[in-house]
Design goal:
With 220 residues, the protein is mainly alpha-helical. 40% of the residues lie in helices and 4% in strands. The protein is built from ten helices and two strands; from the N terminus they run ααααααβααβαα. Strands 1-2 form a two-stranded antiparallel sheet. The two termini are 33 Å apart. The model has no long low-confidence stretch (mean pLDDT 86).
Length: 220
């Protein structure tokens, strides 16, 4: 697909002939704000589209296709914790390959906190990884955010300082005040609405490449 796009862009009339390319395709396929022409490589866009599947599985969206994937691959676990195995289909392998991309830009907005494992899930929006690191040993059973709350929904500061470092406690206390009612829901941090978009996933995925090209240009 990229080959045909290059041929069209450089005006090659004979598809069997190699077009005269005046600039690298990688440099053309960057946003105009970075000095490119805003075109996109098909491989990169495919990753962004696959990320939408990954987001739907992480955030708990429902559809017939997602139900089929849950039934085949997620009977005994959740998507965040599932790992790839050789017997997986190519499609499932591709979805798993972009899971880390989605987790780079997503966290759980705490409602009641009863479904959020504070040990493993990303739930602190101002934390670099969205997931604070406990300083104590993990006990038995599931440890959820609601275990860190008082009966009125305020943070139990004694428990916070027992479990987390001072720095993480400050970040947790700077969050919105937890509610005693409400749904724990996933938020996509790269859109103002909190909803996932393939465009923002594409920009996040290619961020390092765009920056490296801009830095390279800045040397001259």
């Amino acid at each position: 697909m990229d080959s045909r796009m290059r041929s069209f862009w450089w005006g090659a009339r004979d598809t069997s002939a190699k077009p005269l390319c005046l600039c690298s395709w990688d440099k053309i396929c960057i946003p105009k704000s970075f000095g490119g022409l805003g075109l996109r490589r098909s491989y990169d866009m495919n990753r962004a589209l696959l990320a939408k599947w990954s987001w739907d599985l992480i955030s708990g969206n429902s559809s017939l296709c997602l139900s089929m994937l849950h039934g085949k691959y997620l009977q005994d676990t959740t998507f965040i914790y599932v790992s790839d195995v050789p017997s997986n289909s190519l499609f499932w392998k591709a979805i798993l390959a972009v899971k880390s991309l989605v987790l780079r830009g997503a966290y759980i907005q705490v409602g009641t906190g009863s479904m959020v494992d504070f040990w493993l899930r990303p739930w602190v929006p101002k934390h670099p990884l969205f997931r604070p690191q406990p300083i104590c040993e993990r006990g038995s059973g599931t440890l959820v955010v609601s275990d860190l709350l008082n009966s009125d929904g305020s943070w139990n500061l004694q428990k916070l300082h027992t479990v987390f470092s001072q720095v993480d406690c400050v970040l947790i206390q700077s969050m919105h005040h937890p509610r005693l009612s409400g749904v724990d829901r996933w938020i996509w941090t790269h859109s103002s609405s909190g909803k996932f978009s393939t465009n923002s996933a594409y920009l996040l995925d290619q961020e390092a490449r765009f920056e490296s090209i801009r830095c390279w240009r800045g040397k001259f």
